[in-house]
Each structure stands twice: as C-alpha cells, then as structure tokens.
Amino acid sequence: MAIKTRNFNVARQQASTNIELIWWVFMRVSGVLLVFLVLGHIYMNNILISNTSIDFDYVASRFSQPLYKVYDLVMLVLAMLHGTNGLRYIIDDYVHHDGWRNIVKYALYFVVAVLITTGTMLLFSFPFNKVGG
Amino acid sequence: MYRGREGQWAFYLHRITGVAILLYLLVHVGELTAAMFGSKYSNAILHFFHQPLFQLGLLTVIGAVLYHALNGLRILIMDFTSWGTRLQNKLWYGVLILFALLYVPTVIKILPEIFGGGGH
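^ Those are the sequences you sent over. The predicted structure of the assembly is below.
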C-alpha cells in the first residue's frame, strides 16, 4: 500500500514494509535529481537547438561521448523507476480486482524492464571516442 | 484544505502529467532504440516524429514535465519543512506562476519551429 503522508517520521509509521519506505525515499531523491537531469536534457535538445533538426548523426555523436553515456544512463534508470513506481501507486488506487491489478502491474514491469535493457544496450552500442557527426 | 480545492487540483495534475510523461518516455526510448540498427531506420523514425502533430505533443509533454518538476519540489517542501503543508495552496500558486514564466517563452521559441519547417 502506498504511503500517503507529509513527512519521513509519519511515513515510517505508515509504511507497510521496509521496501515501501525505501520507495517513498527513492521517489523524493530521484525526483530532485530528475528535475535537473530532465530539464537539462530538454534545454539541450529543444531550446539550444531545434528538436526537428535532430537526426541519426546528432544522436550518434551524443551517445559516443562518455559524459552523455553516464548522464543518459542515470536519467534512463531513474526516470523509468520513478515513473513505474508512480504508476504502481495509481494502479493500486484504481484497479481493485486483485487478479487484474497484478496482471496490469507485471505487464508494466515487463515493458519497463525491456526498455531499460534496450536503452542501456543502445547507449553502449556506440563507440566511446567519436566526436562530431 | 483538500477536497475540491487547490491541493486536490495539484494532486490530480501531478498524476495526469506523471502518466503522460511515463507514456512519452516509453515511446521515446523505443524510438531511439532504432539508432542501434543504423542511420537508415533511425532517420526514418526520427523524421516521422518531426511531423507537426507529434511536435505539438512533445511541446505538451515539455509542459507536463515542467509542471511535474515544479509541483514535485512543492511536495518536497511540504514533506521536509515545518511550514510547507500550512502554505501548500500558496505554494501551488507559486508553482503555477513559475510554470507560466518558464513555459510561455518555451512555447514562443518552439511553436514557430513546428510550423516553420525547423531543420527540414
């Protein structure tokens, strides 16, 4: 059961399990990091340049730089886990039938696991030293 | 404090924008995965998503991220300060004002690119 509260001490009392409390903390820690990572990502790819100018060469040159590999990998994992856990709270609230709730949740976990995997493979399928187009 | 007032709108908007961002994220990672298979497939898919309809969707998602980020910071203030919950409705108006200040220039920058042809 999701924790619905306003501070850590009450969260600790309300938490049904230690895992649930860890997720409560994770949402806040990853949330702060994602504010900077995602807004930075949007700024770089939509404000500094036009999004419609993005092509394979641009993608390849970014993914070839070690700094962006780390940046994008951290952002990928944090955003996927933050989003999945958030949607898990929503599923708990709206899907009341036990069987369906589990089916929906595990379908979500499966899709996210596949995309974290392919996303990571994508980042490391480019060389580390390529600079420029 | 809650039902039908600022707090509830803040909460629902946080959920709706969160789901929208996650759905976008799933498509976004899937779309970029094509880059593993070379420039031919990658460029075809990137070009497909440069259509105005998808670019307008992207502009909306950027707005969703902006709201979700700012309201997320409001939640942190409520969680970790003694005064945050008491001022939550005022904080929400702060979120909306900051959102407008950041999103209006973003729209002004991006909207002409969508219909002006941008990079293509």
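The CA atoms of residues 91 and 100 of chain A lie 10 Å apart. The interface with chain B takes residues 6-8, 28, 31-32, 34-35, 38-39, 42, 46-47, 50-57, 59-60, 63, 76, 79-80, 83-84, 86-87, 90, 111-112, 115, 118-119, 121-122, 125 of chain A (CB under 8 Å).

Shout if you want it in another format.
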